[in-house]
Amino acid sequence: MTGQETRGRTAVRRCPPPPKAFDPFSATQDDLRQYGLPLRPDPRTRPGVAALWERQARRYRGFEHLEAEFDATTADKKAVVASALAPAPIESCGYHLTSLTAPFTVLFVTWTVPNLRFAPSPLGINRFHTFVGLGFLDVHVEMTVNSTQNVTSQIWAQSVGQINLPVGPGDVVSGSLCLNTNAAGTAHYFLANETRGQTMNFSVDTGFPPAVTVSAGVTRGDLNQPVRPLARFGSVYFDEISAYTTGGSRSLTSGEAVTMVESNGATLATPVRLTDYTFKTVYAGA
After folding, report:
1. Which of 11, 87, 92, 244 keeps 20 to 30 A from 216, CA to CA?
2. Which of 98, 137, 111 is nearest to 241 (CA)?
């Protein structure tokens, strides 16, 4: 189905999934537009982004392309980390990078979805998210775990809401977030479940300004509650991180490392830099 949904100033565009035999390397720019796929960058003027495009085109060529469906009731929900500011240590753990000389336009990350263990809570449930952010754009894997160790998970995207790409503990997920510097703030989401071999894409006019920050990590929910336990999550790995500004590539792990702490100063989770393109967040509790 090709269509456009308009909610206020937000226009979400869905495109039909490409056929199984679709070859992005032989496709024309019009073919790519028809299926809502990213246009192939000019390798002479944007060599880094062009190399990323080719890597993804090879990687996902054999994946099952799903038609995106959105839960409109969650589209306007405020994300835990939908901010151009650094994630707050009281709620988040990860890395955050700012560029004041050139806006970010592309962020690609793969990450693992943890298997949560319940931490005692008067609410009877723990809320936990993994997040990837490009300016005000945000993708979360929203998760819960209850006292019987039942885990739920759902992908949520800023300005769109919950989407129907299946995801669960143990899966490896990848996401490309692209934000144009045009007046419409046109965003392109390209998401994949690497473990299940499924992918989907869609775009939305957000009205957001050019992105000056990128970030990734984990965060805890129930932030409006007096008691906010952190589910036991082990380690979450963030790999293959590629961040590009209009002036070239940047390393996310060269930015600010955010350690999650309790209100009394106790460490809850720690980011560990592995390479320029890889880090992990580690649960600090017993």
Report:
1. 11
2. 111
Amino acid 222 reads D
- Tally of structural domains, the chain: 1
Cα dihedral: 79, 284, 115, 65 (round 10):
50
Give the CA angle between residues 264, 266, 268 to the nearest 5°: 125
Inside any domain, residue 34:
no
Q: Is the whole model's pTM more than 0.70, yes or no? A: yes
Whole-number Cα distances in Å, 264 to 68, 125, 152, 216, 267: 43, 22, 30, 24, 9
Distance (Å) of CA 168 to CA 19, 176, 230, 259, 281: 26, 19, 19, 25, 18
Distance (Å, whole) CA 38 – CA 187:
11
CA–CA separation, 134 and 204 (whole Å): 14
Contact indicator for 240, 277 with CB cutoff of 8 Å: yes
- Residue 87 CA to residue 96 CA, distance in Å, equals 7
* CATH number of residue 270's parent domain: 2.60.120.700
Sign for the CA dihedral angle at 244, 248, 251, 257 comes to negative
Kindly state whether residue 119 falls inside one of the protein's structural domains.
Answer: yes
pLDDT along the chain (286 residues), means of 10: 43 76 85 81 84 84 88 63 70 95 95 95 91 95 96 94 95 94 92 95 91 96 72 97 94 97 92 97 86
Residue pair 197/64 in contact by the 8 Å Cβ criterion: yes
Where in the sequence is the domain holding 238, given as residue range(s)? 63-283
